[in-house]
Amino acid sequence: LYSLYAEAEYSICNFKEVGRVTGIIIQHAKSFQDKQRAYAILIKALGVENKLEDAIQLTFSVLSQLDVHLPSTPPDKSVVMNDWMDMTRTLQKVSYAEFLNFKEMSDTNKIAAMKFLHSLILYTYFAKQEYVPIVITRSVQLTLQHGLCKESCVALASCSYFLCGYQDFKGAEYIGGLSIGILEKLKAQEYLSQVYACTYGGIFGWIRNFRLNLENLLLGYQVGMQTGDIQHAMFNASSYIK
After folding, report:
1. Distance between CA atoms of residues 99 and 107, nearest Å
2. Exposed (0-12), middle (13-18) or buried (19+): which is 154, by Cβ within 10 Å?
3. 148: helix, coil or strand?
């Protein structure tokens, strides 16, 4: 009941009350599972308030309780890039059909971790970019180790987007295609706007006539507005009108 109240207060941007109510839940809940929903609401509220550093640190703490650990300080860049390259090479060794036939993720803690990592991709992109490849790599590793979940499509789409920056257009195209395949297989409509912003506003904008992407960018905008993903709806709209 308290979690529902916190969500209602979040929806009307009463973030002070969100903080108070989620604090009560976190203090008095008997198990960590009972706290997860409160943590998710509080992290979203911190993000909307642009308190990104706080949102990132709280997410790190929650992930550690889910046995998913991220470094408190970023490792040497060469270590990060080696892990990144190992992850992308592993992905590209798996055929499209094999990947889409992966089992679905069943470990509830890992599913919860993927949801928190999903939020972390966006927050680190705006506040701590040195962590972005670390977060994406960990999300993809969980997918490869434990199976597919709806958040896997966002991890792969984000990976594809960043591969464009490394000039790996072949890898970006393949992994972007995987992300759309997972999106469609798992009917992850709530993530369509984000996936399309990263793919049709990313790799497919590089490798083919941009006019061919306009219909999907418009759809990304429309679905984002319908599902409340306003931020990525605007990313799609920005790419559409360029």
Report:
1. 19
2. buried
3. strand
